[in-house]
What does this fold into?
Amino acid sequence: MRYQALVLTVLGLLAATTVGAQPFPLDIAILPEQPTSRELVTVRLTGSLGCMDRQILGPYRVFGTEDLIELHILCSYCPFICPPNPPEVVDLRASLGPLPAGTYHLRVTLTNGQERTVDFAVREPEESPELRLQEGRFRLMVSWEPPEGGAPRHAIAQPLGDQAGTFWFFDEDNIEVTVKLLDGRAVNDRFWLFVASMTDVAFRLSVMDVGDGTCLDLPVFPPDCPNHFYDSLAGVNTNIIDVNTLGGVEP
It folds into this structure.
């Protein structure tokens, strides 16, 4: 038993000394590619790991730093007496949460001591009338009618992740419309739209389904993509639920 324990210890030390020469087995991607301080930042890890099981610890901020974020991947390895198995292909995701604008360093460390650091930037959002949800498949816009009259104006969108967002009319601190778009295809092959109105100003919500983006490549303007409209009249506070219109099959 002592001899076996000594052999395992030596083999473990030998494996640890070669870690530095091994390529990092995971690709690291920050989603979205150019996040803003109003978006949910996610790290995606893809590649092959020779683990029986794995667990993500973190992310967490390193004490005394403002820009270093740690993420640990804990692997449980098969003992040496186990038959060799092909490395498991993994696709892991961890939320870093909304982050203030700035430059960050994400350090991913594996159980065997391998680590890799990637840098990414979070920028302040630019004012945009368009809200993109469900990985960009749906593009939402709100136009509103000034109470004093005049031409309709575009509301300014503020994303709250990939499934929800808000629109403001007069001031960014005064939210007028909140929308949520859920993937309900597992239930009825439709996307589910929920709209909460906090205004009696007349507005129109448009929801464009760009599908795989093919309709955007056509030489026409506006794009020839399916577009759905939802109206709220002046003097009325209108909430909307639509779980039957937005199709699951990409146009």
